[in-house]
Amino acid sequence: MSGIILPCVTDHLVLSTIAGAADLLAEDLRAMASVRSVRQTSPHTVECVVDGPLDELAACPLYSTAAVRDLQRSLRSGVLSCLEPPVKFRVGDRDPVRRRAMIADFEQRCGWLNRPGEWDVNLERSADGWVVQYGPLAWPRRFGSLRRLPWSTNLIAAEVLVRLAKIRPHQTVLDPFCGTGTILLAARRREPTVRLLGADHDPHALALAGYNTKPWVPNVVRAEAGSLPVADGSVDRVVANLPFGKQVGSHRSNRGLYPGVLREIDRVLAPAGRVVLLTEDKRLLRRVVERQRGLKVVRERLLRYGGASPTAYVLTRLGRSAESR
């Protein structure tokens, strides 16, 4: 997490996540000493009251933005009251007349500065009115900006995949489609002692992964996912966002890709290993798993974000007990 200074406050916040992750976010919030009154209010929002330091909340990577529930109260005694003047803000509204009116109102009433590129407060127009986001709790402010490609794994989806993987200390974790390193970063956030392996066929993506993972550098190589330079039975966890044809790959190419990938995962996976694969090519993956016969699906979780609705599949070896789920 970046070195931002976070205050002790009492405020009612609305945290935004992706559909399919809200229950995990709520579970994390209930374990925090400074957070109470946690409730899921929609498939992608969780509300809570923070009463104390924000450090635990800021360290949670399962939400993208935090908005105040009551603007005036927050200005008096909540997170907005702690911002150093002059407060910089932006207004997100496609209607230019309404946007200019809102900018003028906050400049005059609060003395804030309209700075869309470096905001402390982001005012977004929604179907239910204005949403007032608190800048220091935005995802990039907490964890840093990443260099990404259009098909890079959604940041919160990566966190969900890692939770489903149940990574333990000092395990070896492999992402055979590592791209720009999003899942590798999430795995290290979850368990700093893991040994991380990544592979991808795209040299440009690997260059971005190298930038994103500085100053620590995982073992990342250029390789095809169906032919990995990894020893048999040496990997405890495989976590990957498979190509599923929205922005990269196609169903036709996946019919050849998925069987090879599953065979290779079966080869490198340790006897007690666990696999988490994200795809929207769902029927194909299930069919390949059934034919492959070395692994079985033990759990599924549907996610929704950015117009996509992929499912995360958890796989273990045949014969593993229900406890592995």
What does this structure look like?
The protein contains 10 helices and 15 strands. By secondary structure, it is α/β, with parallel strands linked by helices. The strands form 2 sheets. An 8-stranded mixed β-sheet has the order 2-3-1-4-8-7-5-6. The chain has a 7-stranded mixed β-sheet with strand order 11-10-9-12-13-15-14, with helices on both faces. The protein is 30% helix and 30% strand. It has helices spanning 22-30, 55-58, 71-77, 96-110, 139-143, 155-165, 182-190, 203-212, 251-268, 282-292; strands at 8-16, 35-42, 45-53, 65-68, 88-92, 113-114, 121-126, 129-134, 172-175, 195-200, 219-222, 235-241, 269-279, 295-302, 311-317. The protein is elongated. The longest helix is centred in the last third of the chain and has 18 residues, at 251-268. Strand 5, helix 4 and strand 6 (113-114) form a beta-alpha-beta unit. 39% of the residues are buried. The mean pLDDT is 93. Helix 9 packs parallel to helix 10. It has 2 domains: 8-143, VC0802-like (2-Layer Sandwich), CATH 3.30.2130.30; 155-324, Rossmann fold, CATH 3.40.50. This is Methyltransferase domain-containing protein. It comes from Kribbella sp. HUAS MG21. Keywords: Methyltransferase, Transferase. It holds the Pfam family UPF0020. InterPro entries: RlmKL-like_Mtase (IPR000241), SAM-dependent_MTases_sf (IPR029063).
Radius of gyration: 22 Å
Oligomer: single chain
Beta-strand content bin: 25-35%
User: Helix content range of the residues, please?
Assistant: 25-40%
CATH architecture assignment of the largest domain: 3-Layer(aba) Sandwich
Largest sheet: 8 strands, mixed
InterPro entries: RlmKL-like_Mtase, SAM-dependent_MTases_sf
Keywords: Methyltransferase, Transferase
Pfam family, one: UPF0020
Domain Ribosomal RNA large subunit methyltransferase K/L-like methyltransferase: 158-306
